[in-house]
């Protein structure tokens, strides 16, 4: 069935690559993007939306572009079209007002590891088995019952990879500052985070318990953890980071309603 992507930047492109890697045919997809992005072989491209109404349409533009894009696109979203939106902060009510004839409208908050089918995808809207299956091709897909929590999910899993990349950078920089070659420190830091994340995902123990298994009393790991744990330093920093991202998502939602 025809699948249109309206916009194909970093996130839309990551999802597209993940779907094709999962086995969906490239010929199923049409990207509508005046910027003519670099696309996988076999994916069709158009500068503007052609005639017709697709079965599935993914809105992957910047949230602030909705007001200018929706009027010309609404005629292509009919009763047989499921509209998926990855627009941060844009609520279902705003989307329904812009696309009143859509069959279903579902908010999706993915993250960039979807490109390698290791993404996290939060979903809100009328639960749809076909949409669940589509998103599970890209990683972990979970439905969020309360739309009010979608800003939090956006900060946690949507923005989360960026925060982790900063941590990897900092871990590598710390190793380099103590004498390791910078390129070697980065390889070690990246592989350490990858292995630890895989172990945490496979374990029945909480991450805190796994940390305690590494940190013997009086050992070097415990000394390092004591720095992170002092006065709740790491927990406070992460909480403030997520709160700032959540607040910005709420501001985007307010702007979209105006």
Number of extended strands:
8
Assess the beta-strand content as a share of residues.
Answer: 5-15%
Q: Are there runs of 5+ residues with pLDDT below 50, and where?
A: none
Number of helices: 10
Helix content: 40-55%
Structural class: alpha/beta
The whole-angstrom Rg is 21 Å
Shape: elongated
Query: What separation lies between the terminal Cα atoms?
Result: 35 Å
- Main beta sheet: 8 strands, mixed
Query: What is the average of the pLDDT values?
Result: 95
- Output the helix-strand order: EHEEEHEHEEHEHHHHHH
What's the arrangement of strands in the largest beta sheet? 3-2-1-4-5-6-7-8
Describe the structure.
The model has no long low-confidence stretch (mean pLDDT 95). This protein has 258 residues and is an alpha/beta fold. It has helices at residues 10-21, 66-73, 92-98, 129-136, 150-158, 160-177, 182-202, 207-214, 220-229, 233-257; strands spanning 3-6, 29-32, 44-46, 56-59, 82-85, 104-109, 119-124, 139-143. The protein has ten helices and eight strands.
């Amino acid at each position: 069935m025809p699948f249109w992507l309206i916009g194909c930047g970093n996130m839309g492109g990551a999802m597209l690559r993940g779907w094709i890697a999962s086995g969906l045919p490239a010929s199923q997809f049409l990207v509508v993007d005046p910027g003519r992005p670099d696309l996988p072989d076999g994916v069709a491209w158009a500068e503007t939306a052609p005639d017709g109404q697709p079965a599935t349409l993914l809105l992957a533009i910047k949230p602030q572009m909705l007001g200018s894009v929706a009027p010309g696109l609404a005629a292509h979203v009919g009763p047989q079209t499921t509209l998926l939106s990855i627009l941060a902060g844009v609520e279902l009510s705003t989307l329904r007002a812009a696309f009143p004839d859509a069959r279903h409208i579902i908010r999706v908050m993915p993250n960039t590891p979807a490109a390698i089918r290791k993404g996290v995808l939060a979903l809100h809207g009328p639960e749809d088995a076909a949409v669940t299956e589509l998103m599970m091709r890209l990683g972990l897909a979970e439905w969020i019952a309360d739309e009010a929590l979608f800003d939090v999910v956006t900060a946690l899993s949507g923005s989360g990879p960026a925060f982790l990349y900063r941590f990897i950078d900092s871990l590598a920089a710390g190793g380099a500052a103590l004498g390791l070659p910078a390129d070697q420190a980065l390889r070690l830091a990246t592989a350490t985070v990858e292995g630890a994340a895989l172990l945490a995902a496979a374990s029945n123990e909480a991450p805190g318990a796994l940390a305690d298994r590494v940190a013997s009393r009086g050992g070097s790991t415990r000394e390092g953890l004591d720095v992170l744990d002092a006065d709740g330093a790491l927990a406070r920093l992460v909480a403030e980071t997520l709160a700032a991202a959540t607040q910005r998502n709420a501001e985007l939602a307010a702007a979209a309603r105006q």
